[in-house]
Amino acid sequence: MAVTPQTNTDLASIAEALQAHDDFIICGHVSPDGDCLGSQLGLAAALKALGKRVTCLLAKDEPIDERLVFLPGAADLVPAASFDGVARTFVAVDVPTSERIGEAAAALRDACELSVTVDHHAVDTAMTDLVYVDPAAASTTMLVWELAGLLGVDRAGDVALSCYTGLVTDTGRFQYQNTDAAAMRAASEMVEAGADPATVSRDIFQNRSLPSVRLEGIAVERMAFGCEGAFAMSWLTREDFEATGAVKADAEPIIDALRSVSGVRVACMLREQGDAVRGSLRAKDATDVAAIARSFGGGGHVAAAGFTLHCSIDEARDLVHRTLAATFAASGEACGA
After folding, report:
1. Fewest 10 Å CB contacts: which of 193, 205, 298, 317?
2. Where do the domains of the chain lie, and which CATH numbers do they carry?
3. Rounded to whole angstroms, how far apart are CA atoms 229 and 324?
């Protein structure tokens, strides 16, 4: 693993600690993606196989992406604000900071026995007693998969399906730069344990809503390029969502359309969200988009990151365009307007 500042233990020690407790809360980040939900539900299935009592929390009371409702246990997710149980052992997965667990922060504060983080997002701080973070892992579900093995449970069925879903989504169907030999080996193990790649692909990648497709048409029509096509940017307004009948999750796949254009090395998708603008960045070369996101107060991985700007969509477009142009110019690229 790649040692991180906040890591203070290993997965074997976490497995031993979890085995000694009985009541668990598992939470991920706000706006959970496939890796987040797969990590929560995969670990929950493993702990339940040991006879543990487990509740999976949603960091924010909002619907999950409809393409992920097939995951075993998804129907039992509880909004953190509605949780009225006893917070004994708190496990955070795919999330590095208390700010990103939203309304579940209160449950973390109330955890009276043990708190644990298993993640692949590297930050400089720790929010739990035990922390294991491996940014070299293609997905957090790869770490949950290993942890489930160390717990000694049968990983066939729900554990395999949940973990495979997280891995295939965080690697972009094994197309992103984080797809390495370790990821492929883990995927093979998950498939051998019962995960069905065709079913997961159909449910997630071939199951978009019509509003999502219409929203993508708007975004593609608006695409703007910079640095002779090295980066592409587009944006969506509240009015676009209203006109198409789309919800927030419908915008998630759109950045891949920008990223797929020949010559584009970095793609950025902006969308209005309440009084703010949410930005997503994807790279298909060595450009560190996490560094760009951090300049806006966000974060993420080298090839995939996000941020939030508290300004108008027009101001956000101008700021991000200038920042991307400056990033490429600093690397010696010829960047015009």
Report:
1. 205
2. 11-206 (3.90.1640.10), 210-331 (3.10.310.30)
3. 12
